[in-house]
From TrEMBL:
PROSITE patterns from the UniProt entry: G6P_DEHYDROGENASE
InterPro entries per UniProt: G6P_DH, G6P_DH_AS, G6P_DH_C, G6P_DH_NAD-bd, NAD(P)-bd_dom_sf
Organism: Pediococcus stilesii
Protein name: Glucose-6-phosphate 1-dehydrogenase
Domain Glucose-6-phosphate dehydrogenase NAD-binding: 8-191
Residues spanning the membrane: none
EC assignment: 1.1.1.49
Domain Glucose-6-phosphate dehydrogenase C-terminal: 196-489
Residues involved in substrate binding: H183, K187, E221, D240, K343, K348
Gene name per UniProt: zwf
Top-level EC class: oxidoreductase
SUPFAM superfamilies in alphabetical order: Glyceraldehyde-3-phosphate dehydrogenase-like, C-terminal domain (SSF55347), NAD(P)-binding Rossmann-fold domains (SSF51735)
Keyword Ribonucleoprotein: no
Length: 493
């Protein structure tokens, strides 16, 4: 079914709009989810004409589609004709009056029934001002149409600033109208975690503290900071990856089973899950969290973080975080979750490893100390997508000796190409009013509170950086975190 709506994109000339939003909207149009009854107003400071805006939108589609071999028919132009540009300074009230007039005209012209999506593709410091003016200047429709607000990360830099940001928009939009994008939640392998856990008797019955020894989450990047130094110097790996993406994955892996798979039940369980992560004292942070910053590689061909363009010579920003979290959700009470993310690591890979317990006596050996290998379920998220299940079986030897084998499933390149881009799926969900894959304020708030304890502890101490070689898997302390518990990282390239 198609959905009628007017999109008002603040930051319409920006990078996010160009690289992600216009191609995603085009895909929805190409697939018929957006038909002729939609319109987009792009706003930003630049004085663009509608004609110029159409050219930009078409070039965004072309740039995004180049690899997929899309034929250059006239669909992009038909699509771009639905776009209108309104030059706008977010602080200027008069501009909201003009915006409202244009919005009302387009609502009438395209018969949009008052459905509006406000997409804030701009820095968060503008969110409160925009949300306030949208309400004061009556851009929010009343009647049967919907008003939805989509916002991007970063959602604050700690709990107090996130709360301030949330308060600044909640005067104009209710929680159910706010769609906070965490693009990891738009990725199919992340969405499939719930299906794997709750749609299979095999895993459903084993997902408990009786059977799971530990959970490991790795978001490893092989690249360095590239051209994002300006942003990264103010954020670091904790704010960039842990508070949002990793904590969302933690809650999907540790939440209790919802009675019904719908957005409200699911989010309720996810909120409980993040609230049941143990809060650490400062001493516990020192024991359970490791930070790092990359130095040169062993052949000195790659720059240390501090020597990259745009970074401070004495930067104390972390490019690596590892930590041990403990869940107190009833089913997994006490199970450790080891998390790890970093730049310039050995290999790019996002994966989750579920390590099962290995308490059974090995009846196949006379030696009581000879343990069987543990069973491990690996969810491959990026760049590979699929699963590996590691289990023991008899191999072709005399007698009865067991060895591990790997049952592998990987999506093919063709299958991966058919999966919609995260933004396409998320915008479609927002159009449908489906909040399954968006973060609730309570999840965001609690994740910040957990991270703030770590951040505050770190900020009081000067780190000894750089402390890992580019191309390695991070500082030694990240391995020690597991070794001291008698464990090791499953992903060890
Ligand atoms: P950008 O700098 O490319 O674009 C910012 C936009 O805001 C531009 O259109 C600019 O004209 C407009 N703008 C700035 N000040 C304005 C003002 N006073 N009045 C009116 N318009 C104004 O930034 P971006 O990369 O598109 O990112 C936008 C937001 O999305 C940021 O908060 C960013 O952190 C977030 N984000 C971006 C990406 C991405 O891939 N680019 C990914 C995730 C999150």
């Amino acid at each position: 079914m198609n959905q009628k709506a007017l999109f008002i994109i603040f930051g319409g000339t920006g990078d996010l709009a160009y690289r992600k939003l216009y191609p995603a909207l085009f895909n929805l149009y190409e697939k018929g989810y957006l038909k002729e009854d939609f319109a987009v107003i792009g706003t930003a400071r630049r004085p663009w004409s509608n004609d110029h805006y159409h050219e930009v939108v078409m070039s965004a589609i072309e740039d995004a589609g180049r690899d997929s071999g899309r034929t250059n028919d006239d669909l992009p132009r038909k699509f771009a004709n639905h776009f209108y540009y309104q030059s706008h300074n977010v602080d200027d009230v008069d501009h909201y009056v003009a915006l409202r007039k244009l919005a009302d005209e387009l609502d009438e012209k395209y018969q949009l029934e008052g459905n509006r999506i406000f997409y804030l593709a701009m820095a968060p410091r503008f969110f409160g001002t925009i949300a306030g003016h949208l309400k004061d200047q009556q851009l929010l429709t009343d009647g049967d149409g919907f008003n939805r607000l989509i916002i991007e990360k970063p959602f604050g830099r700690d709990y107090p600033s996130a709360k301030e940001l949330n308060d600044s928009i909640s005067g104009s939009f209710k929680e159910e109208q706010i769609f906070r994008i965490d693009h990891y939640l738009g990725k199919e392998p992340i969405q499939s975690i719930a299906g794997l856990r709750f749609g299979n008797a095999l895993f459903n019955s084993l997902w408990s503290k009786e059977h799971i020894d530990n959970i490991q989450i790795t978001l490893a990047e092989s690249l360095g900071v590239e051209e994002r130094a300006g942003y990264y110097e103010t954020a670091g790996a904790m704010r960039d990856m842990v508070q949002n993406h990793i904590m969302q994955i933690v809650s999907l892996l540790t939440m209790e089973r919802p009675d019904v798979f719908d957005p409200s039940h699911l989010r309720e369980k996810k909120i409980e899950a993040v609230e049941n992560i143990q809060m650490y004292s400062k001493e516990e942070v020192d024991q359970n969290f490791v930070r790092g910053q990359y130095g040169e590689d062993e052949f000195k061909t790659q720059l240390a973080y501090r020597d990259e363009e745009g970074t401070d010579d004495n930067s104390q920003i972390e490019t690596f975080v590892a930590g041990k979290l403990i869940t107190h959700n009833p089913s997994l009470d006490g199970v450790p979750i080891y998390i790890r993310t970093g730049k310039r690591l050995t290999k790019k890979s996002t994966q989750v490893n579920i390590v099962f317990k290995n308490n059974d006596k090995n009846i196949f050996s006379d030696n009581p100390d000879e343990k069987l290998e543990t069973n491990v379920l690996t969810m491959h998220i990026e760049p590979d997508q699929g699963f590996t299940l590691e289990f023991n079986t008899k191999t072709g030897n005399q007698g009865y000796k067991l060895s591990p084998v790997h049952l592998r499933y990987r999506k093919t390149a063709a299958e991966k190409a058919r999966i919609p881009d995260a933004y396409e799926g998320l915008i479609r969900d927002a159009l449908a009013g489906d909040k399954t894959n968006f973060a609730h304020w309570h999840e965001v708030a609690q994740a910040w509170k957990i991270m703030d304890v770590v951040r505050n502890t770190w900020d009081a101490e000067t780190p000894d950086f750089p402390n890992y070689v580019s191309g390695s898997m991070g500082p030694q302390a990240a391995d020690d975190l597991l070794t001291r518990d008698g464990r090791e990282w499953v992903f060890n390239p």
